[in-house]
């Protein structure tokens, strides 16, 4: 009997140890990522505002429920009410949610307007989705290139390749030519598709927009912090949909200008965009 009890406790102990070890994993997060753009910061702030409102409402509702269950139970001699409804109670649970929704609309509307406001952009990048790659064109700069899945990931994904994907850095999230942008610059992007619908999604930027053939979506972002940020096509676009990642490298403005000059000088006629 003692052996059976010990055996039963082992899975529970393992579960407890696993939960306790989770905070040590730096990449393990429950909350929404804060991102590295002004858009993502606003989205995060609005998310936290709504989360706290929902938390307060939830605590209030469950507190009333628990109080009612504990206080007005049959064992205490509670007698069921005979009325069918309460106008006062209905007014409360109608007016309060309405006021909350009006408040949230007041807080959200300016942010939605700013997200769509591409005015005063300092540079424009045209992004075109293909099966299964991305083309980036620096509008007015005479330079464009294609970005495809890195050869290391492409080789590892093949059947019977003999390559362990776990040994490949950023498996399926690495490209041969990342999009390079300057930090602290408002960048307008024009997004379209060449064949089928794709979606350009970079979580750290809080951007996910469809690239639709024959239609141009636009938006903007301004990266606050230098670094490498990864995303993926988020619209099912064919058999290799899972193999067209997005990598954006943000550099300080001076470094970006030097990079762009170097790339334009080294570009072949095939990669230089027509003026």
Would you kindly provide a written description of the structure presented here, covering whatever features stand out?
- The chain has 275 residues and is of the alpha+beta class.
- The protein has two domains: 38-71 and 86-116, no CATH class; 123-266, Cupredoxins -  blue copper proteins (Immunoglobulin-like, Sandwich).
- It has helices at 2-21, 38-71, 87-116, 151-157, 253-266; strands at 123-130, 133-138, 143-147, 179-182, 187-193, 198-202, 207-211, 217-221, 227-233, 245-251.
- The strands form two sheets. It has a five-stranded mixed sheet, covered by helices on one side.
- The protein starts with a helix and ends in a 9-residue tail after the last helix.
- The model is unreliable at 1-9, 11-26 and 270-275 (pLDDT under 50).
Detail the topology: elements first, then pairings.
Layout: H1 2-21, H2 38-71, H3 87-116, E1 123-130, E2 133-138, E3 143-147, H4 151-157, E4 179-182, E5 187-193, E6 198-202, E7 207-211, E8 217-221, E9 227-233, E10 245-251, H5 253-266
Parallel strand pairs: 1-5, 4-10
Antiparallel strand pairs: 1-2, 2-3, 5-8, 6-7, 6-9, 9-10
Helix pairs in contact: 2-3
Read across the widest sheet, the strand sequence of neighbours is: 3-2-1-5-8
Taking pLDDT < 50 over at least 5 consecutive residues as the criterion, the unreliable ranges are 1-9, 11-26, 270-275
Could you spell the SSE succession in H and E letters? HHHEEEHEEEEEEEH
CATH architecture of the largest domain: Sandwich
Using the alpha-carbon principal axes, give the shape: elongated
Number of domains: 2
| Radius of gyration using CA atoms only | 27 Å
Please, what is the oligomeric state? single chain
Average pLDDT value? 86
Fill in the CATH topology of the largest domain.
Answer: Immunoglobulin-like
Approximately how much beta-strand content do the residues carry? 15-25%
- Structural class call reads alpha+beta
Q: State the end-to-end distance.
A: 83 Å
